[in-house]
Fold these 3 entries.
Entry 1:
Amino acid sequence: MEPYPTGSAGNTIDLGFAQLDVQRAARTGDPEVVYGEGKTPAQIVSALRALHAAHPDRAVLATRLAPAALARLAEELPAAWLDEAGRLAILGTPPAPVGTVAVVGAGTADLPVLREVAATVGVFGAGCDEVVDVGVAGLHRLLAQRDRIAGADAVVAVAGMEAALPSVLGGLIGVPLIAVPTSVGYGWHLNGLTAWLAMLNSCAPGVLTVNVDNGFSAGVAAARIARRTARP
């Protein structure tokens, strides 16, 4: 990692509505990410373009994008890769992957969060193996993928409803395991609070839980674990 300046000059790009942290990659190894909620489509385009110009050798990521923002990005940044399901965009080429993260989803309804995890893992420099629709209602589906999942350097389990998937996985594998509760479920699931509490109270050792629907943070952590684990 290269030394970074300690003064303020050259550390930020002033866009008027945002102060972009262009030295974050020097400090942490990874560039700043654009969080789309609360920003206009024009602001998202401007921020993503400026970050990529500051890091032309790195992919930059924008998350939580509304349809209007995705449409604007398609018009103004045609080189960007867009994922409507994951509500995200990537501008630039992700780095060569180091290590592997298995991203395991309980159901198809969890795919938007799973896609956010997967894209983040790639932008942050690890390989991603997506294992989808293997929730505990059909346990044979998960057991059939056990060896594949256990071969990863880190695992992210994405689940809503009662969120049993991470607990079951925690008893099947000995890999660093990050649990992501989603706001998916019938009735009084409290917008993911039920899943979050279930994951926090897992009896399986080593299950680490992030906030509801926070696929981004899980992806960052898992990619960093995988990169550290796999490097010589």
Entry 2:
Amino acid sequence: MLMNSTSVGKDTCQEKGHHLQRELNFSSTFSLAFAFISPIVALYSIFGIGILTVGPAFWWGLVVAMAGQLLVALVFAMLVSRFPYEGSIYQWSKYLLGSRFGWFAGWTYICTLPITIATVALGGAGFVAQLLGIDATDKMISVPIALFLIAFATWGNTQGRKIFSTIVWLCIGAEVIGSVGIGVLLLVEFKVNTLSILMPDAQVFAWPEPGISGFFSSKVALAIAYCGWAFVGFESAGAVAEEVKDPERAVPKAMLFCLLSVGAVVAFSAFSLILALPTLEFPAGSDPVTVTLITHLGQIAYKGMLVLFIIGFLACMLGIQASVSRVIWAFARDRTIPCSDFLRQLSGDDKLPTRAFLLTGGLSALLFMLSFTNIYPLLLAFSIAGFYLAFAFPLVGACVSVLKGDWREGPFSLGILSIPTIFAATGWTLFEAVNISWPRYPELSWYENWAVPIMIVFLALAGWVIYSKWASPSYMHSTLSAAVADNE
């Protein structure tokens, strides 16, 4: 990896008349991305599902997903070093393939993240319910708790960078204890299984039917689909690029260091939990994480663990809101969405997009009005797919740029490996998007089985209406180019 001297160079915030404060550094940018991708959320949201549906061999799905996402992160690091603008995926796509392409990239991301906040809130509500000793499976209990968590996260984001930073660093402390510390304890004191438990059997690789449908219906594909959730959020470091000092260098490093550190923590924690599983036969409705921790640590210690889990989930929600609010603000700055003049206003001494925070919190809360049944699996499925669909926009844009001969290296470069990495990352992302969206559950109703494709079509149509009606003419007819961005 190379960090060459080519740079955007100018302070785009100040030159374009915007007033974002460039106060963040590598450490604070890393902490934002770490909170978003939170190892606690990444692991404990999927561990139980993975064990119950695939078995201990689902751990290898983490390895595959981590390798694929590292390719994506390397490409994103190249892009953010070249286009260090507020809004990450939206901006990269816009400068690679034009304003309309960029708008739909940002729209996909904006639609995905409120769903992700709702998903994380619902998962966190389950831990709050357990801590309070009430029924975590009752939607009439879990949904109000989730709404409270969303409200708290929204409040935390609107109070300024100090409150946000405090909660995020609490999260990192909770991660060290709740993931690494407990992992070491389980591995040293409560290891009950041998390494052979991780070895996949023939059923993991078996195809229920011939052809491509058989592959996507296999357990190995399912494991990779679930584990795709564990390693998204690193791109959030790029969402605040105009608030970071020396973003062309600090943001790529924060993005990559975050993904690598979270990947190591998640893989180690999952490894330790699997070797400590007291049984592979769990009662219906039980959670393998809960059973394992209570069996080895007892109820009192488990209650303490729940507090750490809740901190991790709250910090994750704060990180997600911080990221999506910047994309909404970037949209509003370009006057491409309704109420742009209202949403582009910054508030407080820290000059934060408070109105975008409130909008995001409101949208996330509204999602719980749709249904009280089977909401978690559906939200989880689309929130994962939405990330990979959004990721595909700048990756496809980079591929087109290479094929047209327009690709240029930024301050962060892979040298001769840049182009192969771009195509490999694009292939992985498109594969994972299809894998996650595949209708592999015949026991579900048709609309549940096809929930992801249906949502994609609905959001695409809604996006087209909004873009056609509200995007300013100057934006719609702008002739953006990567060369212009490189020379700013």
Entry 3:
Amino acid sequence: MAIISLEGMRLWGKHGYYPEEETLGREFILNVQVYVNIKEAAEEDELSHSVNYETLYHICQSEFRQPAKLLETVAQRILERINRQFEGLKGVKVKIRKMNPPLGGPVDEASVEVCDGLFDLPPLKVFKALLDIAEDIEDLLE
């Protein structure tokens, strides 16, 4: 298993609740992580068995072009499209950072992070899931 990440994607978007945000736009920074089994891709050295970084980037870029009032909406659209594009993902995490949000005072950023799959589980559930996987592997080896 592996986490494949794209960190620090800088995209310009017209997302926000206020009319000036929809008109002027601003810079956003996106981070995307996917939790995926890379065993077959690593053994065969074949991109078609893994998650293509370029495809991830184009998904983010495409969804980002569609304005929304809420970052939650954009982040969820990206997460869902990644899940549709790549089969067998164990989890997806998308974080969008709005730089210098218009809040009436100096604020570096506001952010929204959405996740699913193993990224969405509390640590104890992740530990239990890993124990279950280990037991399954042990059964296979017997």
